[in-house]
Target: 3-O-methylgallate 3,4-dioxygenase
Amino acid sequence: MAQVVLGMATSHGPMLSTPASDWGQRIPADMANQAHSYRGNTYTFDELIALRKDDDIAGQVTPSVWEAKHSRCQLALQQLADTWESARPDVAIIFGNDQMELFSDENIPAFAAYVGETIYNKEYDAGKMANLPIGIPISVPGHIPPGGAEYSGCPDLASHIVQSLGKDAFDVSVLRGFPQHHATIPHAFGFVYRQLMRDRVIPSVPLFINTFYAPNQPTASRCRHFGQAVLHAVKSWPEDLRIALIASGGLSHFVIDEALDKVVLDALKSGQVDAFDAIDESFYQSGSSEIKNWIPLAAAMAELQWPARIVDYVPCYRSDAGTGNAMGFVCWVPEGSDG
Model:
């Protein structure tokens, strides 16, 4: 009988894989964005500066603060990776999202699972690197190792999860391979393989949630039930496997909202995961939508009655408009475990 031995959630934003001295590379893109999503509305960069003038953000965007926060994030990632190693899982099930990497306007499923034998994490060629948005190329090694890599999927378990989800009223798309235009796993998953598994990658089942793209974004409630259904599928798998459940993404970005993040972290600590349903769907937009990758994991952990341990929460501002990425690092281990 399969056994869940670990739950883990991490941000995966490019700032985590970028030296602190280069965090400002993304500011020109922030300034050009005419529709920053923040608390249910959209704003220009200048409008955000005016709106948040009393938030004392200027003191958060100095080189010394950037260095200190970057160091905290790296320490938190090390702690998660150490916990991962101690748990000794056999298989990882990863909740993540796609940002027009594998998917495109022709096909954006609400939920999908990778059921193939091999997971590719290929290096980008020079042309693709040249076309990446400003400030992103420097972060690519954070999710793709030099020379690229191939990892093992877990097709039997993945297929079982899809079939079990169907019985729980979730019709999930399946991927058996990668499209030619992007023959590599999205960064949400590559970050986990590199940073948490430290390139010692075990077989995994990538599960995709369409957090970003209207009109078929699953609601918070739907994501919560999805996590419970995934847990039920795992519990019904007959093989004796140690399974880790991982969420990749979040917290609030590309405009940081510490009040929103507090609601999220409080729900994790209390186990009252229906609190996610009370957050207005208009808050789950842009990068903050990736909180929905955490909700299925949180729901599964609440059903197991495992306590959440907040390893760290680091709001990494890069501009006085409040742009940046709030980084969260959380783990769940069974009571009595030393993880």
User: Anything to note?
Assistant: The first helix runs from residue 27 to 32. The radius of gyration is 19 Å. The longest strand covers residues 308-317. Residues 10 and 329 are 5 Å apart (CA to CA).
